Amino acid sequence: MKADHGRACPRPRRRLQQESNNERRLRITTAGGKSGSFLSTTPDIRIGSEGRVMKIRFGRSLISAILGTCMSFSAYALEINPGDYEQFPSGATIGLLYYQYGHGDESYTRGGKTTSDAKLDTNVGIIRLLHVYEIAPGVTVDPQFLLPVGAISTGGVLEALGSPGGVGDVILAAPFKFKLDTAFKDVVSITPYLIAPTGDYDATRSLNFGTNRWQGVIQGAYVKHFDPVWSLDVIGDVAFYSDNARYNLAGLGRLSQAPQFEFQAYLRYKIDPALEVAGGLGGRIGGNQSFQQVSLRNSQGTTYGRLAVAYFPEPTFQIQAMIGRDLTIENGNPQATFVQLRLAKIFP
Fold it and tell me: Among 135, 198, 216, 342, which one is most buried in terms of CB atoms within 10 A?
């Protein structure tokens, strides 16, 4: 990786491995930078603001696990809900509000559990606004923005990281949707996303909601309508990341990340025109990070499950509730509980 602002940083792998082998006490604080939309950490090893010293037998493994945890937050704002890729009425403006809660206590490194005392609770809200334009017969584009805000609560071995709150990076997107000439009007879509480094970021803080780097995502989707009540949504995407050149304390480090891939599938059943239920699975792979050209070996290998119900109390207002959890994980903190509530209002 590239050199850093005229001042060299020690290569963390060598230092951490030596201290781990000797079972020395590691003083851990993190300061900004992860991938994605809500949370970021950095593997700067120093005394925390409260003078807290933690004895960690496998210091480097814990840091990689923490970074893996943060990688998981990047996906939530882009995680698709059942029915998101249906084609909306041309000319409609749609406003959406999301509330997401996540909880986990365990931490994993390269598929092995490192601790059951890594509490991580998230409370995140997302504001989303879109407008639908018809650009050709059967073809629409939905330019939109999403803005996440929220708070993190940590405990156990993660307590020294603090419990930040703030505004995340703004997300811009433009789904292009094509209605196909099939028996039940299937839909295919391609969506470019741009995530700008506008969120709260302070390299001296342990955790940040902003990421201090640009991200781009290309997402494709296919909606298969088997009949008037059964549908299948299949979604896949790849995310690309610029470097964060102020990843370490005082901006002395540089974080790079390889592309990350995600796949989702939801089976939906329409009980009546106003009520729909859905269940699905998803997974993330890739996204390994490097700090100062040293691989952190924290690639994603996460699978998750979701159940959802959506109800229209009146034709222009929808309430959707979703629950889920992580099923398997390679690196990071699995979510034992995931809850989301979404309100959507259609303005014709």
Answer: 342
